[in-house]
Amino acid sequence: MRPEILLLGSGWVPQVDKVLERDYVCHRLAAVAPADRDAFIERVAPGVRGVFTTGVTGIDAALADRLPKLEIVAVHGVGVDAVAFDALDPRGILVTNTPDVLTEDVADLAVSLLLASSRRIPQLDRHVRAGDWEAKKPLQPARSLRGKVAGIVGLGRIGRAVATRLESFGMAIRYFQRSTADCLYPRSASLPDLARESDYLIVCAPGGAATRAMIDADVLDALGPEGTLVNIARGSLVDEAALIAALQEGRLGAAALDVFADEPRVPAALRELDNVVLTPHVGSFTVETRTAMGMLAAANLEAHFAGKPLPTRVLG
Ligand code: DGY
Fold first, then answer.
1. Ranges for the D-isomer specific 2-hydroxyacid dehydrogenase catalytic domain (predicted)?
2. Are residues 116 and 139 in the same domain?
3. Minimum CA distance residue for ligand 1 atom 1
4. Digit-coded pLDDT (tens) for 49-63
5. Which of 131, 154, 186, 306 is the most buried (most CB within 10 A)?
6. Ligand 1 binding site (Cβ under 6 Å of any ligand atom)
7. Model-level pTM?
8. Ligand 1 midpoint to CA 138 (Å)
9. Does 180 share its domain with 198?
10. Range of 196's domain?
11. Catalytic residue chosen out of the listed positions 27, 49, 234, 304
12. Helices H, strands E: what count in the chain?
């Protein structure tokens, strides 16, 4: 008999859906109207042995507690900050994620955002579309990257991939994280120091309690009116109110953001600012990477139900 799984969220490719439909009895929470979700969970909960979820959705303690037979949570994403390990660990429920397969594409997006911001691509696009070029309206020049300093917050797999790319633009790389990384780049003594020493601060650290709002008003002020914040990690790392205030008051030069504190809600104040580039949490959103992520998440479920070692288990 096929095991029953509960699918939370969306964003994986159809090919992955086909594999899941073939191998499991799938219950899809996203397909249920919000008002009916409680009754739906009540009905399917007794049979659910696995959860397939996204990095942003994760699984909270309230839902996990309603699934008495839950054995495994397969996260389609690398970040597991939305997973309630406190509720899962005491019950021995396994958690897997999809590291490595998304590193290069997420790093590409970080660099795309940095370039879009420094070369003012969205502003130029608006300029052309509005007919301002033909009308010979004045344009503000962009800034070169060569010789500038990129400060990487969190030099893990994605942070390193970003650093490698930015080195090829002639930028100097610095980093900060609590532990010293085994690498050639200089480590700043603190996060405000890194911000002070950088022209671009690129947030690549994981989300969760330990990093919540670490990019605060002090860090933003240290980055300064010529500085740019790039965030491709989690919105929770940035104090969004402090960021908006710093941008509005000209204490921070610019921001390029793929992630937000309360997705998909993006504060109107951010949307109104001209010196901000916004994308809707799409670091891993390419056909190739989403296919690889989905297949890896499915492979973790398959290994579990076949009694084999999990390819990418996360320890809580
Ligand atoms: C990840 O993999 O963590 C992405 O940010 C999607 O959640």
1. 25-314
2. yes
3. 77
4. 999 999 999 999 999
5. 154
6. 54-56, 77-79, 102, 283-284
7. 0.96
8. 40
9. yes
10. 103-278
11. 234
12. 12, 12
